[in-house]
Amino acid sequence: MGKVNFLNSELIHKNAENSFLLHGNKIKELLPEADIQHVGSSAIPNCMTKGDLDIQVRVHAEQFSKAVELLSNLYERNDESVKTATFRAFKDDTSNPPLGIQLTVIDSEFDFFWKFRDVLLANYKYRDAYDKLKNEYEDKSMDAYREAKDIFFQRLMETPEFKKYDK
């Protein structure tokens, strides 16, 4: 896999927000009961980002199969990602910015993307540490960055700030 590069500009974040509104409305038409969240670094002002857009679509368990079917009609399935009975990933690499969609069952093991966003929004020290990690991996292997990012988020899940979202 290629190298990773990060950006931090108001224009990138504004473009992602506009794209979120567009895709969020499309998804809401298909899945009116879904909770649609702008997640990922582009949802956090002044955070470094790869320049992509991540959307989490949260549904109840009984809606999941239908949601997979409907989202598959709009977006490409991301077969490189994990696939479980409560999680599916979709993508649109032709979108501007490139789009990733994480479909999760509410309160399932993968229903954490919105929590990461909220913890990073509320805690400068974690946001700063995440940006520092990104600086360390600038122009390096995407796979190596993803491994380091996974470790960062595993540690974040152990913090009191993250655990307050657990029931």
TrEMBL record:
<dbReference type="InterPro" id="IPR007344">
    <property type="entry name" value="GrpB/CoaE"/>
</dbReference>
<protein>
    <submittedName>
        <fullName>GrpB family protein</fullName>
    </submittedName>
</protein>
<dbReference type="Pfam" id="PF04229">
    <property type="entry name" value="GrpB"/>
</dbReference>
<dbReference type="InterPro" id="IPR043519">
    <property type="entry name" value="NT_sf"/>
</dbReference>
